[in-house]
Amino acid sequence: MTSPTTDSDTKTNQKGAGRPWYREPYMWMVFGLPLLAVIGSVTSAVISVKVMANDPVLDRTLPKAVVLDPELLEKLTPEQRALLEKSVAPARQARNHAASPELPKSQ
């Protein structure tokens, strides 16, 4: 047989029923954490606009290729000619060896 419920039992079953909304911890998680994310993103956007406003856009056109004068190459010794040709080679071929110390094969 079950016992009848009293007023004191219903008050314990309605845990937090008389508390204001700002006293509920889950309310702060549900509204507070997304609000912090929005505030952080707006702050990041404002900082990036203010700091990067004076930053110029880079010119994306490729530089002109260096053409060596054949007459100059004829006057140079083979060692000087190799150094000159290596100095004007693209960085990907000649000077970008930070990741791999191996020199590229000559073509």
What can you tell me about this protein's structure?
The protein is 51% helix and 0% strand. Among the domains are: 21-53; 66-96, no CATH class. The mean pLDDT is 76. It has helices at 7-13, 25-52, 70-75, 78-87, 91-94. The chain is rod-shaped, with a radius of gyration of 36 Å. The chain has 107 residues and is mostly helical.
Considering the chains and any ligands shown, give keywords for the structure:
107 residues, mainly alpha, 51% helix
The main sheet comes to:
none
Helix content: 40-55%
Could you say which overall geometry the principal axes of the C-alpha atoms support?
rod-shaped
By secondary-structure content and strand pairing, the structural class works out as mainly alpha
Number of H- or I-type helical stretches: 5
Instruction: Estimate the mean pLDDT confidence.
Output: 76
Count of distinct strands: 0
Supply Rg.
36 Å
**H/E topology pattern:** HHHHH
Sheet-strand content, in percent, reads under 5%
Topology readout:
Blueprint (H helix, E strand, L loop, with lengths): L6 H7 L11 H28 L17 H6 L2 H10 L3 H4 L13
Concise account of the structure shown:
The chain has 107 residues and is mostly helical. It is 51% helix and 0% strand. Among the domains are: 21-53; 66-96, no CATH class.
